[in-house]
Amino acid sequence: MVSRITSGAVHGIESFLVCVEVDVSGGLPGLELVGLLSSEVREAKERVRVALKNAGISLPPMRITVSLSPADLRKEGSAFDLPIAAGILESLGILKAGRMKETVIVGELGLDGRVKSVRGILPIVLEARKQGMRECVIPAGNEEEAQLVDGIRIRAVESLQDYIQYTKDGTFPGKKQNREKMLPERGEQKEIYDFAEMGGNARVRRAAEIAAAGFHHMLMLGPPGSGKTMAAKCIPGILPPLTREERLEMLAVYSVAGKWKEDGNGQGRRPFVAPHHTITPQALSGGGSVPRPGAVSLAHRGVLFLDEMTEFKRSTLDLLRQPLEEKKILITRSYGNYTYPADFMLVAAANPCPCGYYPDMKRCSCTENEVKRYMGRISGPVFDRIDLCVETKRLEYSELAGKEKREDSRIIRERVMQARKLQEKRFQGRNIWFNAQMGSGETEQFCALGERERKFVEHIFEALELSARGYQKTLKVARTIADLEASERIREEHLCEALSFRMDMRKDTKH
């Protein structure tokens, strides 16, 4: 008798349903698995056999063949244990065949019959709903994650015995199932870092506000101790909250990576990922023998902070070219291509030279060639993809010890939210949330200039030798500055401020 159970798997960030077919027949006793399987899937036959034995079910001396289709897609992970066991139980007549016809079953089995949590539950449940499935049977440890998806019943099991009982009579021992599905909202919460604690550096504050309002990439250059790292850590406190669509995208990445709820992401906060400068290229972009999302994908819809950017290897930084431009990362393996989202806001901080004090020649001990080589660790194409560059100055004593009232992050965030509402209205019906995400068509439509502004930009374009990308980014930043002032059109003063941040980049990084 052949039984069919529906399960699910992830490939990159995408999910697909898998048909688990089980046939029990006479012949040489054994349990065989086929269907382009990874080693952890092939090992399922031992886990399933022992789990069934410890659940009081002994396999008869028959030949059991399990096929996972589609056979041309590689299956990875340990999530097929429970559906394989379910298929065997149906084929043996212990459970009624066809009872779980519209159900997706996922879960790893322990040798004692416990059902363990697995990675990638969120995208699997989303795909199950998309394919019209009625319910999902998942590990109890993944229940909260799966409950974020509306329109499909979630049945969480703690053991193989729980699954058997549910299949027979639809009940669970001592468990209340199908709680209300609700994506947790981000409430008001005190941020660890607040701009009110940051003295001086008014221009850095302004650049951070513009970057947060339009989701622009930002680079801070200045001597040690001038507030670069502090400013970066304050930025999450002024970013707009995630929309529901953004949260599901971000949480799907963390689900696939096995990092559900890490750093508060289960509560819908924008991620803040700050890798050390010794990070490997694979850890930054993603990859490995079994590909996993890297830091650029874990920062999706949030902030990727590169502290001491010039200490990163140039080859590692150059990996940012694709995700900064295309908002995704593509990993190629012999058995398939994996695509992970990587739409993040890059915030970087760097010293202008090895000693850190250039251009203060009273304190800087570096030669001109040393300064050029040091800044040359960041390639021109990476620089060209940065929207704002701001110079941080050494703080004076009066700025640190002064008693003047400073704006806190809550006040700055209110202005950012007003600009965000304008962008939400502007891009309604489009898959765009911020000005920085505009393509060339949207930039031409929403960043149209008057005759006076057009002539001004034409003059500056030639004087600064801007690239086409630099021109587009200048317009997007100017659009954000106009939004912060609730201006419908981009005026010359908005363009001047946007260009001043590109001039900072040329002044501090020319090599």
By CATH, the topology of the largest domain is Rossmann fold
Q: Percent range for helical residues?
A: 25-40%
Q: Strands across the major sheet, in which order?
A: 11-14-17-10-18
Query: Can you count the beta strands?
Result: 18
What's the main sheet like? 5 strands, parallel
CATH class label of the largest domain:
Alpha Beta
What is the chains' assembly state? single chain
Number of domains: 2
| Outline type | elongated
pLDDT averaged residue by residue: 88
As a percent range, the share of strand residues is 15-25%
What class, by secondary structure content?
alpha/beta
Concise structural overview:
This protein is α/β, with parallel strands linked by helices and 511 residues long.
Task: Tell me about this structure.
Strand 6 (108-109) and strand 7 form a beta hairpin. The chain is α/β, with parallel strands linked by helices and 511 residues long. The protein is 38% helix and 17% strand. Residues 176-182 and 184-190 have low confidence and may be disordered. The protein has a five-stranded parallel sheet. It folds into two domains: 2-169, 2-Layer Sandwich (Ribosomal Protein S5, domain 2), CATH 3.30.230; 195-509, P-loop containing nucleotide triphosphate hydrolases (Rossmann fold), CATH 3.40.50.300.
Write a concise keyword list for the protein shown above.
511 residues, alpha/beta, Ribosomal Protein S5, domain 2, Rossmann fold, four-stranded mixed beta sheet, 21 helices
